């Protein structure tokens, strides 16, 4: 059977790095198993779902290097869910309930005071036809609950019923169906909650592996029961831990925090995001993988920790710097061109500056320094100014070779008697206007003799 996975966000906001973790776990799993990847939008909540969010999610996935085999929208598949509802009703495992939220709330409180678990007591199953008729004549519409298979013959006497599965990430997992309320699958207004459409689609779309966040572990117990009620073999499940910020806060699509869009706008490389999103909270070290193939070779869902993983967004910059440091010119060329960096000096320029960049766009500032001189010329003491004038006087004639910097600074040392920092710092400041940056031995040939002399203070 072809391995088939899906990434199923609801399009109610921009995806963040935690969602990227889920998407990438699925994508890398599909890569490693020659499988298919379905992009499924869980947009049954029509009021909150927006096409623009779905489009932005696809854009973000492409940016990360994820190209789904197919894209599906649940909002276009209601008839399929309606048919499943009819089957569940016919099997008498979907039943009508008429309680209002306030009534349910009151019942939960009563159960708690009696020391009972605050689960739904299946009171709707005890309604007489007259009571149902009365609700209906009052205009009350039913919502529909799935009867969890946690009893022998009397649903009002639930018993411990363990559902087991071998989780791809967490190993042996168990959920006791008697500890849960029968889930509402359809609301009074006929709209669907997430639970049923997800199962129906996983069956219809041939999903073999459901990989998602561990906030769905309990759902899995319920959904396994629904798979079986619909006569289907449940897929393999895997629940990865969730990412939190350093202060332990969860990420939310609604707040926009650490959205893929904001990271892209900050100049973070897709592979920095992907490397962190996949490797944090696993037994692997978080290092910058060059591409998704390399990341896939490090990917083992079973090596993921069971507890939430804190991560520091600053780690993204560390990974970004590593990626910049090793990025071959061929990879940077087109992006540099977009910044206006495209002469025959572009390649030596890139090789000179890449080790000093936090983000690729920072190259532009160095390009301007090299083409137009320091952005803010440095102030020098009289002593340093004399030193620099002497230094510029002994700048070697062209043509220059690879040792020009060494030759020049050797002469400066001889002429002025300065060495070390007092020699190099004024030179660096005069040439670049900055106290740190790429090797001057690499920058000098890019400035040329004329360009260098133009920097004489
Ligand atoms: N729409 C659900 C979510 O975003 C999908 C969960 C699942 O993968 O089944 O949490």
Plain-language structure description:
This protein has 457 residues and is of the alpha/beta class. It folds into four domains: 1-72 and 194-326, Rossmann fold (3-Layer(aba) Sandwich), CATH 3.40.50.620; 82-186, Alpha-Beta Complex (Glutamyl-tRNA Synthetase, domain 3), CATH 3.90.800; 329-363, no CATH class; 382-453, Arc Repressor Mutant, subunit A (Orthogonal Bundle). Helices cover 44% and strands 11% of the residues. The protein contains 18 helices and twelve strands. It has helices spanning 17-32, 51-64, 78-90, 101-113, 129-137, 195-204, 217-229, 260-265, 270-279, 292-298, 314-326, 329-338, 346-353, 363-372, 382-393, 404-416, 421-432, 440-453, and strands at residues 4-7, 36-41, 70-73, 94-97, 143-146, 162-167, 171-176, 184-186, 209-213, 236-240, 243-244, 309-310. The strands form five sheets. A three-stranded parallel sheet has the order 1-2-3, covered by helices on one side. Helix 7 (217-229) links the parallel strand 9 (209-213) and strand 10. The longest helix has 16 residues, at 17-32. The termini are far apart. The model has no long low-confidence stretch (mean pLDDT 96). It binds glutamic acid.
Tell me, rounded to a whole number, the average pLDDT.
96
Give the CATH class of the largest domain.
Alpha Beta
Any idea what the shape is?
A: elongated
Q: What would CATH call the architecture of the largest domain?
A: 3-Layer(aba) Sandwich
**Contiguous runs where pLDDT drops below 50 for at least 5 residues:** none
Strand fraction equals 5-15%
């Amino acid at each position: 059977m072809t391995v088939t996975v899906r990434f199923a966000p609801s399009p109610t906001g921009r995806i963040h790095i935690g969602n990227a973790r889920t998407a990438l776990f699925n994508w890398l799993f599909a890569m490693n198993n020659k499988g298919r990847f379905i992009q499924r939008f869980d947009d049954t909540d029509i009021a909150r779902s927006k096409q623009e969010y779905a489009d932005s999610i696809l854009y973000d996935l492409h940016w990360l290097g994820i190209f789904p085999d197919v894209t599906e929208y649940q909002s276009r598949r209601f008839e399929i869910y309606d048919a499943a509802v009819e089957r569940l009703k016919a099997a008498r495992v979907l039943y009508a309930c008429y309680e209002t939220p306030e009534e349910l709330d009151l019942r939960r409180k009563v159960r708690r005071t009696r020391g009972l678990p605050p689960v739904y007591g299946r009171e709707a199953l005890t309604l007489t036809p007259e009571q149902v008729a009365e609700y209906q004549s009052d205009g009350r519409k039913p919502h529909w609950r799935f009867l969890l298979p946690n009893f022998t013959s009397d649903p009002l006497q639930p018993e411990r019923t363990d559902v087991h599965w071998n989780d791809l990430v967490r190993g042996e997992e168990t959920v006791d169906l008697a500890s849960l309320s029968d889930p509402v699958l359809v609301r009074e207004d006929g709209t669907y909650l997430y639970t049923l459409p997800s199962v129906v689609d996983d069956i219809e779309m041939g999903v073999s592996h459901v990989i998602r966040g561990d906030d769905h572990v309990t759902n899995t117990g319920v959904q396994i029961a629904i798979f079986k009620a619909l006569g289907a073999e449940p897929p393999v499940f895997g629940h990865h831990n969730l990412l939190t910020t350093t202060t332990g806060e969860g990420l939310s699509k609604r707040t926009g925090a650490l959205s893929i869009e904001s990271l892209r706008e900050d100049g973070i490389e897709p592979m920095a995001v992907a490397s962190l999103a996949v490797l944090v909270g696993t037994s692997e070290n978080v290092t910058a993988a060059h591409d998704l193939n390399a990341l896939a070779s490090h990917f083992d869902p079973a090596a993921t920790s069971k507890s939430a993983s804190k991560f520091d967004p600053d780690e993204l910059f560390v990974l970004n710097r590593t990626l910049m440091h090793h990025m071959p010119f061929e990879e940077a060329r087109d992006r540099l061109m977009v910044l206006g960096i495209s002469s025959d000096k572009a390649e030596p320029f890139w090789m000179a500056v890449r080790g000093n960049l936090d983000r690729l766009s920072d190259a532009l500032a160095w390009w301007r320094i090299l083409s137009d001189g320091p952005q803010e010329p440095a102030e020098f003491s009289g002593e340093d100014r004399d030193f620099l004038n002497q230094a510029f006087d002994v700048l070697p004639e062209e043509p220059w070779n690879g040792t020009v910097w060494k030759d020049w600074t050797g002469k400066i040392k001889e002429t002025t008697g300065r060495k070390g920092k007092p020699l190099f710092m004024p030179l660096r400041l005069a040439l670049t206007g900055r106290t740190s940056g790429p090797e001057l031995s690499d920058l000098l040939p890019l400035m040329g003799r004329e360009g260098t002399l133009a920097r004489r203070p």
